[in-house]
Write a structure and sequence with these properties.
The complex is a heterodimer of chains A (326) and B (330). Chain A is mostly helical and 326 residues long. Chain A has one domain: MetI-like fold. Chain A has 15 helices and no strands. Chain A is globular. The two termini of chain A are 14 Å apart. Chain B is of the alpha/beta class. In chain B, 32% of the residues lie in helices and 22% in strands. In chain B, the strands form two sheets. Chain B has a six-stranded mixed sheet with strand order 6-7-8-3-9-10, with helices on both faces. In chain B, strands 2-1-4-5 form a four-stranded antiparallel sheet, covered by helices on one side. In chain B, helix 5 crosses helix 6. The radius of gyration of chain B is 21 Å and the shape is globular. The chains are: A mainly alpha (326), B alpha/beta (330).
């Protein structure tokens, strides 16, 4: 296990370095001069040069790259062009909101998906299955923004049960993370975006769980468990579900990584102040350092969660770590 | 003493084309304390019979009739609860493919303890001690209880399956092709373990196999199955030496080394009949070199251990069956 861990950490660092380098090059190879968006044309040449120097843009590219890497290692993403704040601070403020939204939705979606999927595997061919599978598929296939707007229209505008957007009520302040997590207002604002994301995410674990469960239930060791006269609970939980869960766990970790960056749509629809919304804002206003930071942050989370998925699989399935015991 | 007595035992499969009579009226007596071989070619219903006795069949299959009196009670008349009580405690099973028969994500210890605790009612410590004892009995190092199935060789997995089957001291063990997936040397080792434990524990065992050599090596008694029915049964030595049913005669020539002889192997031409709406008459008649008009219209019943109209002429038929030309070989 330890060798596997070190190996995966090595991969992780390599991938992150490649991502960071590509991001660096991408932003510098893009056509147009980023400073044009930032500097007013009324500035004279001197002011312009001074500002360029303050961002280190007067140095040769390789020097910029080394400085960039060194600062990245220290967690310094530079200054935002527009908000005049360190990028890391802006991202750090947005990350917990995205994380809460993602984790809550993902856990709900997987809990529902696993239970319903396993249940449907048992009721194969029933009327219930005929209703549930198309429903799960339809909510999975519906565009996120459409689902979100529908829920907004019904539950926020029509009935007024939930707020229409944001993470705090007007006049309220965001406060620290603990203040947010303990305030009912924050959770109330979370309901609709989390519901939308849950509905959007539940299809994959549900169908995956059902499919693997059906496969596992045909395995000889399930027949043997029945022959042993074991209780239905032992057969389903200890043998069938445990084996069927393996691919679902992997999907969960990957889903966590993908959702952190993929919540752009939902965060925009519900004006949820997360990473996705920061990214959209940064791109729209050509705030290059901020966009660059958001990209790297999203890539970082994705790569880390991939590694976690790998490790989880090895921990759950003894066959994956075969060959290192002997 | 007869431990298990089957009369007109039937298992049917529902299929698109109709009802498949996989086991179609089997009569079989299994005495206590002996190994009964159940032999026949693929698809003759021998595995279905074994699984039907355990009461665990695929969804499409069902026990369609007959009786199965085990330890004085008809299994088919029992409630689901009483039926489950019999499973593994009185009657256990050694599967064909030990690879998938063991749960891949649980250590052997967990799989042993599960049975010993949930079905055997033992405490954790007693169950642990019993698991180690069982591993020693089948010739496995108790330390390997900490391993996962994929860390075992095929022979070791089969030994572990035997240990599991013996966990609750059953009276009858049904072994479904227990050595088929193993190479010949390991086959012999596993058969030795099974025979030794069977004698030591006084078990009755039904050994399902397609291999006459396995029957000759390990079984006291044998029942030959063809197309869902028993065509011949008796003491293994008698049946193998002096087969009275033409199908058994064919089988003994189709496998090497039963008599230790060097005779060439002679296959039986043709294939078993489809068991959807089978025709009347002896089911082996279409492949039988000795069939008479009557064999195609009337169904012979199992009498004195053989189901053949020409059983009385067996010595003459055996002499003819020894010639490859009889089976259309050439």
């Amino acid at each position: 296990m330890r060798r596997l861990l070190l190996e995966r950490l090595g991969h992780l660092l390599l991938v992150l370095w490649v991502v960071a380098s590509l991001t660096f090059l991408m932003f510098r190879l893009m056509p147009g001069d980023p400073t044009l968006n930032f500097l007013s044309p009324t500035f004279n040449e001197e002011t312009r040069a001074a500002l360029m120097a303050s961002f280190g843009l007067d140095k040769p590219l390789w020097q910029q790259y080394l400085i960039y890497l060194w600062q990245l290692v220290q967690g310094d993403f530079g200054m935002s062009f527009l908000q005049n704040q360190p990028v890391s601070r802006l991202l750090w403020d947005a990350l917990p909101n995205t994380a809460v939204l993602t984790v809550v939705s993902l856990v709900l979606a997987y809990a529902i998906g696993i239970v319903v999927g396993a249940f449907l595997a048992f009721r194969r061919g029933s009327v219930l299955e005929g209703v549930m599978i198309p429903t799960a598929l339809a909510t999975r296939a519906a565009p996120e923004f459409w689902l979100g707007m529908l829920l907004l229209a019904v539950f926020a505008f029509q009935f007024g049960w939930f707020p229409t957007g944001g993470a705090v009520s007007p006049g309220g302040s965001m406060g620290t993370l603990t203040e947010r997590l303990t305030s009912a207002d924050f959770w109330w604002h979370l309901c609709l975006p989390a519901l939308t994301l849950t509905l959007f995410l539940q299809g994959l674990p549900l169908l995956l769980m059902r499919a693997t469960m059906l496969e596992v239930l045909n395995d000889e060791f399930i027949t043997m468990a029945k022959m042993k006269g074991l209780s239905r609970w032992s057969i389903v939980m200890r043998h069938a579900a445990r084996n069927a869960l393996l691919p679902v766990v992997t999907a969960f970790a990957l889903g966590l990584g993908a959702s952190i960056g993929g919540n752009v749509v939902i965060e925009t629809v519900f004006a949820w102040p997360g990473i996705g919304r920061v990214l959209v804002g940064a791109v729209q206003s050509s705030d290059y350092p901020l966009a660059q930071g958001a990209f790297i942050m999203i890539a970082f989370v994705l790569v880390v969660m991939n590694t976690v998925a790998d490790m989880a699989y090895a921990a759950l399935d003894p066959r994956v770590s075969v060959g290192r015991r002997a | 003493m007869t431990l298990l007595q089957l009369r007109d035992f039937q298992v049917h499969y529902a299929s698109r084309a109709g009802i498949v009579r996989a086991v179609d009226g089997v009569d079989l007596d299994v005495p206590a304390g002996s190994i009964t071989g159940l032999v026949g070619e693929s698809g003759c219903g021998k595995s279905t019979l074994g699984r039907g006795l355990m009461g665990v069949l695929p969804d499409a299959a069902r026990i369609a009739g007959g009786s199965a009196v085990f330890e004085g009670r008809d299994l088919l008349g029992l409630s689901a609860r009483a039926r489950r009580d019999v499973r593994w405690r009185r009657m256990s099973f050694i599967p064909q493919t030990a690879m998938n028969a063991l749960d891949p994500v649980l250590r052997l210890r967990a799989q042993m303890l599960e049975v010993l605790i949930e079905r055997g009612g033992l405490g954790r410590a007693a169950a642990s001690a019993r698991a180690e004892e069982l591993f020693r009995m089948v010739g496995l190092d108790p330390a390997r209880l900490a391993d996962y199935p994929h860390q075992f060789s095929g022979g070791m997995r089969q030994r572990a399956s035997i240990a599991l089957a013996l966990a609750l001291d059953p009276a009858l063990v049904i072994a479904d092709e227990p050595v088929t997936a193993l190479d010949v040397i390991v086959q012999r080792q596993v058969l030795d373990v099974m025979r030794d434990l069977q004698a030591r524990l006084g078990l009755a065992m039904i050994l399902v196999t397609h291999d006459m050599a396995v029957v000759a090596y390990a079984c006291d008694r044998v029942a030959v199955m063809y197309a869902g029915r028993i065509v011949e049964s008796g003491l293994a030595a008698d049946v193998l030496e002096r087969p009275r049913h033409p199908y058994t005669m064919g089988l003994t020539h189709a496998f090497p080394d039963v008599h230790g002889g060097t005779g060439e192997l002679v296959p039986i031409d043709g294939a078993p009949p489809v068991l959807i709406n089978p025709k009347p008459g002896c089911r082996f008649a279409p492949r039988c070199p000795f069939a008479q008009p009557r064999c195609h219209t009337e169904t012979p019943v199992l009498e004195a251990g053989v189901a053949c109209f020409r059983a009385a002429e067996a010595p003459a038929l055996r002499a003819a069956a020894a010639l490859p030309a009889t089976w259309g070989a050439g």
